[in-house]
Write a structure and sequence with these properties.
The structure is a homotrimer of 328-residue chains. Chain A contains 13 helices and 9 strands. With 328 residues, chain A is an alpha/beta fold. Chain A has a 5-stranded parallel β-sheet with strand order 7-6-5-8-9. In chain A, helix 2 (35-49) packs across helix 13 (307-325), helix 5 (110-117) crosses helix 6 (133-140) and helix 7 (156-170) crosses helix 13 (307-325). Chain A is globular. Chains in contact: A-B, A-C, B-C. Chains A and C meet through helix 3 and helix 13 of A and helix 1, strand 2 and helix 5 of C.
Amino acid sequence: VGASRRVARDATRDATYASGLATLESCVEAEQFDRAMMEELFDVADAMERVRPGAPESTMLQGYLMSTLFYEPSTRTRLSFEAAMGRLGGGIVSTESAGEYSSAAKGETLEDTMRTVEGYADIVVLRHFTAGSARRAANAIGKPLINAGDGPGQHPTQALLDVYTIRKEIGRLDDFKIALVGDLANGRTVRSLASALTQFNNVKFYFVAPDVVKMKDDIKDLLTSKGIEWEEATDLAAVAADVDVLYQTRIQKERFANPEDYAKASGKYIVDRTIMDALPKSSVVMHPLPRVDEIVVDVDDDPRAGYFRQAQNGLFIRMALLKVLLRV
Amino acid sequence: VGASRRVARDATRDATYASGLATLESCVEAEQFDRAMMEELFDVADAMERVRPGAPESTMLQGYLMSTLFYEPSTRTRLSFEAAMGRLGGGIVSTESAGEYSSAAKGETLEDTMRTVEGYADIVVLRHFTAGSARRAANAIGKPLINAGDGPGQHPTQALLDVYTIRKEIGRLDDFKIALVGDLANGRTVRSLASALTQFNNVKFYFVAPDVVKMKDDIKDLLTSKGIEWEEATDLAAVAADVDVLYQTRIQKERFANPEDYAKASGKYIVDRTIMDALPKSSVVMHPLPRVDEIVVDVDDDPRAGYFRQAQNGLFIRMALLKVLLRV
Amino acid sequence: VGASRRVARDATRDATYASGLATLESCVEAEQFDRAMMEELFDVADAMERVRPGAPESTMLQGYLMSTLFYEPSTRTRLSFEAAMGRLGGGIVSTESAGEYSSAAKGETLEDTMRTVEGYADIVVLRHFTAGSARRAANAIGKPLINAGDGPGQHPTQALLDVYTIRKEIGRLDDFKIALVGDLANGRTVRSLASALTQFNNVKFYFVAPDVVKMKDDIKDLLTSKGIEWEEATDLAAVAADVDVLYQTRIQKERFANPEDYAKASGKYIVDRTIMDALPKSSVVMHPLPRVDEIVVDVDDDPRAGYFRQAQNGLFIRMALLKVLLRV
């Protein structure tokens, strides 16, 4: 029974890859979402933003259970998913130490763990340290799964919330210019965002990064192959004057062998009052957070400082995904 | 007030030991459940299986709170209990590190901790590393308690879910044959199951274990004293051909001083395609999980592979116990 | 937008300091509560005690989310807050290891963390190891915050539940005598309680402490400056015979360099049968818990042993605060 059910499911899954939200079975990779699916999801997220405590919508998922199975701690991501479920009245069973999960320690496979957990919950949110784990896990079970990050692999809800934030902040997803700033070599976030934005029309990219953490060729080649305009730049103020979206990222200390190299790289492109003065009035500053000092705190009160709204958009996107995947 | 209430409660407790579900106050030892109580509980569990998200039954325990107080981590057990409460709309306050619970570290007794926690919750689920803790804890409070395992002591919900699984899978609890396979010396699960099954008629046991972890005399003597047939066997395929239930268990590495002894013991009795071919059509393979390689993965898709359904039955049994103990 | 909103909020906050529950924005310091506000809060707490599972009041906070953000573990306090939210039907997103919160580890400020979390939840409960953190956190966000202890700083809900317990147990907050016993030098609890009780009339204090942990001059001076009677005493039985409230505390081992000094101090003032015989019939024994052996277990069944009821009053006070701060 289990086998035939799962085989049928896998076949369906291939068929639904980018074939519309109504048949979406899991959220494993950002590439599952084509433009139409993103726009449809964003409309659901807009509705989620209007859910108020005590209103009927706030009990939409009453009686449903989500299991958050985290093999490595990521408190921010976990809280965001659990808040999303809670805002819709759903229940949560949660562990932040699935890696030490006594069963995993005893030699249980990820697939066995997943099949046990699917017996308890209606949907599973998985965080794992190994790329590809989310796909393996989704294939093992007959219930929807959301990938909350699988190591150097995917973190699709981050990409979705970033695109959603651009739509909300500047009002469109075509015909705009975006600067990606900071660690472009290692940042999973900016790489995924660039990839996701290839689905929209007339987007121009600026890459502004210290030499040691420049955007890699694979993304540049992808953009070029799709006829998308991009350029590398070094004058952040000049770039700022020309963009609709300034996406800043943190330079990660742990990437540098030498503390002086880190200090030089991390201090090079700071978003401060001067940059904000250059930035057009209707643009937005984004950042995946946490922020250290690559955006100065003075800037937080500027209406264009969108990074805390961006974090909150993660909540709405995750609420929307839960609703869609649970078919409620 | 507290004292007289507790004295009265203890008196009642003795009186209700095996006197029916309606007066059951706590679930501490498997021996509290006679055959009639088990059957009654299993009927409730059957109803629990039909509770659907959004249906009125799914909010049966709305407003009730369960405290899961775990002095040692057991994520699988904790998630199962929390899912059971969540499926019925109840709330959860949970800790997986009660051992480091600041109060315990400061010298607070288990009884004091329990009396504090009973002030917050309607029912307590306790996991402890010391045998007898669950009884002490249940005696300290005026609210129901469920023992989720107290060290080498009891883990009554495991025994109940095992018996329940047999009833569901083969349709009866009398007149059947069961093989207990693997580590029969140390496995709390198989020992409890054997003990629980003495309440039913015409059950025959086969014990199939490597020499170093054979079933101990106490269980054999118990069966003999009750006139229950049992035998030790070494040919798993031959036994498989004759049973209704094949209950496989994991050989625990940590029981062996010598890695070669472990390898020899753990490799001796594997459930694979050959064993499945020998097994009758209407039988079931059970395993308390986690499984390492004592059941090969190929077997998972066989309809008789019941171990993931068995894990899920734990959910229904725990839902049933919560309903019964909270008198809802 | 964020900035102007926060500026407006801060102005309001100053204006509401001790100006009535209806405009209370956060619960950061015990001094925010004047006598009238305490009495009003206690009336709400009385109503909370009558909330039953399944009754309409038990879903009062349905759809609301509380985030418990603990930078150090305090399981008892966390469970009490989460039970309070759960008893009113609210949802919880919780972390007990916010100190290792990956974002904090990466250099995120407390203010940034708070602004992210306020995007998820309707109310935040913060436990931190640094005095003043709760005020900083409350100022950073536009949603209510409850201080669940900030290091050597404040723990206002403990002070409130202590005063509430006195009102419930002896029926009044004026015209009574209280003995504070044990570690009066380091105990945050007794110091806060003494300070809070200065708002009531005709309260007399006895301080009964081993020499090394005597009540400090600041509290004595405060009482004297307000014309409040206090005296130091060494004969616990004699004091017991004269008081309405005997508030015992634990002598903390870690305060003593020398184990013999600790043994001598901790054994000096024990509440036992003899002390209970001296204590008037209508009085109450309180203790903030956990208790080691400064109150003998024999005494627990005496109707005047109020410490477990006191712990439960913490639940009612926290339910009341949640209701008040969420304006439901």
